[in-house]
Design goal:
Number of domains: 1
Mean pLDDT: 84
Shape: flat
CATH topology: MetI-like fold
CATH class: Mainly Alpha
Largest sheet: none
Distance between the termini: 97 Å
Order of helices and strands: HHHHHHHHH
């Protein structure tokens, strides 16, 4: 089988797996898993990030410990715990997609917490002091003053985290999740004579996705930096007046 024949035969399988005659898989499942994980991790990461900068130690210390433990644990270990260890404790075995989704949500939330923390702490302290001098409590200062400004600065980092999440979905291969790398392996098993071409297509797929999102993050960063350096007000140009020569 030639390379073009392989593409013509398996391109639908590569994109959506056996859907609609079976479960969704391939590239569509990879994008769905990464998007769902990031969307579900956003509120949890926001809460953990706020806890990281909390003035109350009873909140800050446990949240900091949780974030450090998750960030210091390989995602592969989190997937193994969620798929093998938790069912032995709870007696309830989850499928590959929910297991991988839970692992990615926990993992991404810890990294998003650090993004939120850095975004809040990057703001000038005068923002907090001005809000508190107006009588706003701490939580209102966060909600009305700090978070709206910090979220704008966090947009490039959020896009980069989405790029990382797309690459992390490939670990679903170890529990049999039919994401795009698992589908590529199945295609290679069926063709068997074109391993270089099969995995080159897989590598190019990841590259196009991740490079495109990285360029989006770069554009967002440039736009935000240009907006930050733009003057608040522009001087109004003085209109040129036509002067007539006085008669001699």
């Amino acid at each position: 089988m030639s390379f073009l024949e392989m593409v013509d035969t398996y391109w639908v399988f590569f994109l959506i797996g056996r859907y609609p005659h079976g479960p969704l898989g391939g590239l569509a499942l990879t994008l769905l898993l990464a998007s769902a994980a990031l969307l579900l991790a956003l509120p949890l990461g926001l809460l953990l990030g706020i806890g990281r900068v909390s003035p109350w130690r009873v909140v800050r210390w446990p949240v900091t410990a949780l974030v450090f433990v998750v960030r210091g644990t390989p995602l592969l270990m989190v997937v193994f715990w969620a798929y093998f260890f938790l069912p032995s404790l709870t007696g309830v075995k989850t499928g590959q997609f929910p297991t991988m989704l839970m692992a990615l949500v926990v993992f991404d939330a810890a990294y998003l917490a650090e993004i939120v923390r850095a975004g809040i702490q990057s703001l000038p302290k005068g923002q907090t002091e001005a809000a508190r001098s107006l009588g706003l409590p701490y939580l209102s200062t966060l909600r009305l003053v700090l978070l709206p400004q910090a979220l704008r600065h966090m947009l490039p980092s959020l896009v980069n985290q989405f790029v990382s999440t797309i690459k992390e979905t490939s670990l679903g291969y170890i529990i049999g999740l039919t994401e795009v790398s698992f589908i590529a392996t199945q295609i290679n098993t069926q063709v068997f004579t074109l391993p270089t071409q099969v995995y080159l297509v897989l590598a190019l797929t990841y590259f196009v996705l991740c490079f495109g999102l990285s360029r989006l993050a770069y554009r967002l960063e440039r736009r935000l930096s240009e907006r930050a350096t733009r003057p608040v007000w522009n001087a109004v140009p003085v209109p040129q007046t036509l002067t007539s020569r006085a008669p001699a």
